[in-house]
Amino acid sequence: MANLAMLLDMTRCAGCYGCVVSCKMENGSRPGINYNGVQPIEWGEYPNANQRFRLTLCNHCEDPECVSVCPAGATTKSDNGAVLVDHEKCIGCGMCVSACPYGQRHLVKKDETNFPGEIAPYEEESVKRLNVVEKCTYCNQRVSQGLMPACVQNCPGKCRIFGDVADPESEISKYITTHNAIKVEGTSTYYVIPENMDEALLPAAYIASANAPVAPPEEDKSSSSGIITGVAVATVAAVAVGVGVGVARSRSGKGGDDTNG
């Protein structure tokens, strides 16, 4: 049986945000809701300062709390390991949003589009979803057809490796071995990090207490996230420019803007 996983090689990421834009165009997520995150992180002090981009997404946990707390049975873990949401069953209670220790679930409460007053072609299906939870599904609609997730397909740096870790001959399995990848415990996410980077900078360090009270969120979390606006989505060509900018930043050690998933 397949066991899908995602590997993120931080040594190759140029911070171009191509994964964020391609994900939004594939899934039509609302303004301020991004399933992928690109977060500049820094460590060390001048003249030995370092900067890289930490990539985040739903970690498709091995034993996901979002599944166990859902009163409607809308969130399930599929046979291939992907955690999915049935929007027909979702009642919008937000219990899973509070239960997710990585902040990778999004309750859609605002009926907005990326272009005010207009519905872009890639939003035709997503605009039908309101008061339900959305998240990364590994682009289940693509994977089920034998395609790669949009973020993997469109990463110019090839820093995302996706596949079946149950198959020792798969690309991801070999990459994990040859690049000494670090697995975020209890999840389906692996990272390759620079040699001098502290593992504490990985998402595992931000896991909320398992004993924290679970309750529906009071506010829209989009205000704390970087917003990919309609203009940004329309100017997809800017992603190519971002590659060059990201590479320059990586070499110079300077920071940049933060876009969370």
Cα shape: globular
Number of strands: 10
- CATH classification, class level: Alpha Beta
Structural class: alpha+beta
Number of continuous helical runs: 8
Distance between the termini: 29 Å
Q: Name the CATH architecture.
A: 2-Layer Sandwich
SSE string, helix = H, strand = E?
EHEEHEEHEEHHEHEEHH
* Radius of gyration based on Cα positions: 18 Å
Order of neighbouring strands in the sheet with most strands: 8-1-10-9
Protein name: 4Fe-4S dicluster domain-containing protein
Transmembrane segments: 227-248
Domain 4Fe-4S ferredoxin-type: 49-80, 81-110
Pfam families: Fer4_11, Fer4_4
Describe the structure.
There is one protein chain. This protein is of the alpha+beta class and 261 residues long. The chain has one domain: Alpha-Beta Plaits, CATH 3.30.70. Helices cover 21% and strands 16% of the residues. It has helices at 18-27, 65-69, 95-99, 140-143, 150-153, 171-178, 230-234, 238-252; strands at 4-9, 37-43, 50-56, 75-77, 83-85, 106-107, 133-134, 160-164, 182-183, 189-192. Strands 8-1-10-9 form a four-stranded mixed beta sheet, covered by helices on one side. A two-stranded antiparallel sheet has the order 2-3. The longest helix has 15 residues, at 238-252. Mean pLDDT is 83; it is low at 207-261. Keywords: 4Fe-4S, Iron, Iron-sulfur, Membrane, Metal-binding, Transmembrane, Transmembrane helix. Residues 49-80, 81-110 form the 4Fe-4S ferredoxin-type domain. One of its GO terms (molecular function) is metal ion binding.
